[in-house]
Amino acid sequence: MKGRVLVIAGSDPSGGAGVQADVKTVTALGGYAATAITALTVQNTKGVAGFDPVSPALIRAQIDAVMDDVGADAVKIGMIGDDNAAQAVVEALDAWARAIPVVIDPVLAATGGEALARDGVAQTLRAHLVPRATLMTPNIDEAAALTGLEVCDRETMIAAGRAMVNAGAGAVLATGGHLPGSTIEDILVTDGGVDVFETDRIETTSTHGTGCTLASACAVGLAQGLPLAQAVERAVGYVQEAIRTAPGYGAGRGPLNHAHTVRTA
Ligand code: PLP
Q: What is the DSSP string of 214-247?
């Protein structure tokens, strides 16, 4: 059941999003997290002040160090930062991840609007990473950016999901949290059809890192051998409970409670 996940993503010093959220999520769901850091951001619950990408050689060396020794049962990709980093990730996937599931959260901007990807990343995602993904987890803005379609409701989420599946993705979980309404629909599109995962919206400002957390929860499920729909269902439930029990830290959009599965002694 353990499940090793190599997380390739950016660092959030405030601990709510990025690799920090990914490591906590994988751990809280019983898996083992290793990391290759693509960018160092400076941010907290109030917003993103900036970021520096890690050099492509250093990203590749981190991935090689993990894969050459510990190995992975799934890869999760989050923030990539710039296009040199994106190219390094594509090459590393070709070298190491042909036979394991790859979950890609196509991070382009923070919910507050600050860019988390420089020019070229969206294009590389579209051309080289969508076709390599076992599962893409775009929110509505990311789904629109990757397909050129307008994405604003259930039908258009499904259309964007289908477009990414037609472009080579194994499956797409289009997340509906940014749409209004008292029920949130996360929509899983595969070759075989469409599954809708519904949750009640919790009125809260504690949603920082929700996308990172959901994608990592899906990745660890796949690493543990769960069928896709079961991995997604567990992930959606995990995120919902993490939002419901959020600790309320910070003056802005606060972090989730990743540890709700963990019993303290
Ligand atoms: N910081 C990093 C490093 C991220 O990877 C992400 C999103 O994936 C964010 C911030 C954005 O978090 P949010 O969507 O909660 O603004």
A: HHHHHHHHHHTT--HHHHHHHHHHHHHHHHHT--
